Amino acid sequence: MKIAIALCILLLGGSIASAKPIVIHNGQEHTLSSADGKRDFRVFIVAPDAPAPEAGYPVIYILDGNSILGTIADEVKRQLHTTYKVPAVVVAIGYPGEDPWNDQRRDFDLTPRVPDGDKLKGPGGEPMAPTGGADLFLEFIEQTVKPVVERDYKIDRSQQTLAGHSFGGLFTLHTFFTRPETFQNFVAMSPSIWFADNYLLTEEAAYRAKFSEMPDKARLLITVGGCEQTIGECDPAMQSSPARDAWLGAKGRQVDNAVEMHKRLSALKGDAVNVYVIPGEHHVSVLAASVSRAVRFALSTPIKK
Predict the structure, then answer these.
(1) 213 an active-site residue?
(2) Catalytic site residue from 174, 233, 283, 290
(3) 227-263 pLDDT, tens per residue?
(4) Has 30 been annotated as catalytic?
(5) Which of 21, 142, 154 is nearest to 93 (CA)?
(6) What is the Cα–Cα distance from 302 to 86, expressed in whole angstroms?
(7) Which of 228, 233, 281, 285 is catalytic?
(8) Burial (0-12, 13-18, 19+ Cβ within 10 Å), 113
């Protein structure tokens, strides 16, 4: 078998020894720690070749960096050379190791603190890892990540975008409702509004109640897969169970929650709030399908469907 492999390599005109690692152009990685020094994060930064505009680079902060870094870095590069021609810095925040998700860490970092948070259960009825660290994570981004980015690059602080998927979308909406001044654009991709019996709706109601006295100009895009409430989620490879099937439409309500939230918020903020239901996509596949919309939203005027 080894001889056959070596022969194939020779026939192809190459060798294992001559192979080079693939790297992301203009990419760098930092290990940054939480204020208490107990939690480390991988922070990936990708900068464009083009010089910064006079006001500085727009910047996109995206969560689950281990999973999405390459996808969003490529999309920003494509947009720079084709459509919007706006050089932007990408900052993808992830976790040590190569796990694309690290569910235990993200369950804590990306969820707001709620009553009885230690008793919460996931979509399959399984007990959840500890939750409630969203405000600590936001402070980490504000007090640790942003200063590093702004130390190394000229950033336009009037063009900052926060984007996240699933619990990352929940975190994005939590930040939009509680600290809208921290970013100007928010992209909640397939947000887990269902978390803790729709606790986020309490934060939304408080945001809407004070908006007339404390208006903001923050923009919001919500994306969701059109199949997220469909049993099997339009993909035969998706693992299902009676408990999850029942949860999809009764409690998860991913599509309905997103559409209904858009209706309420657009009545308040008009075109500053957009929703896009992406046909044929399920909860996982919608992430890649949402990235192009996220970049366009971050670098352009509000998207018209």
Answers:
(1) no
(2) 283
(3) 999 998 898 888 778 888 888 989 999 999 999 999 9
(4) no
(5) 142
(6) 15
(7) 228
(8) middle
| Amino acid identity at 41 | F
Pairing of strands 27-33, 40-46: antiparallel
pLDDT digits (tens, 9 = 90+) for 58-89: 999 999 999 999 999 999 999 888 888 889 99
pTM (whole model) above 0.90: yes
Q: How many residues does the chain have?
A: 305
Relative to beta strand 57-63, strand 185-189 is unpaired
Give the span between the Cα atoms of 93 and 64, in whole angstroms.
Answer: 6
DSSP state, residue 127? B
Q: Say which residue the tokens 């169970």 belong to.
A: 241
Residue 283 known to be catalytic = yes
Q: Which residue is associated with the tokens 């010089």?
A: 51
Picking from 180, 168, 276, 255, the residue whose alpha carbon sits closest to that of residue 219 is 180
254-269 and 200-211 are packed helices; what angle lies between their axes, rounded to 10 degrees? 10
Nearest Cα to 164, choosing from 205, 222, 96?
A: 222
Question: Measured between alpha carbons, how far is 67 from 63 in angstroms, rounded to an integer?
Answer: 9
Superfamily of domain 21-299: Alpha/Beta hydrolase fold, catalytic domain (3.40.50.1820)
Residue with tokens 């908006």: 211
State the catalytic residue, choosing from 67, 75, 165, 166: 166
Q: Which two tokens stand for residue 57?
A: 């680079």
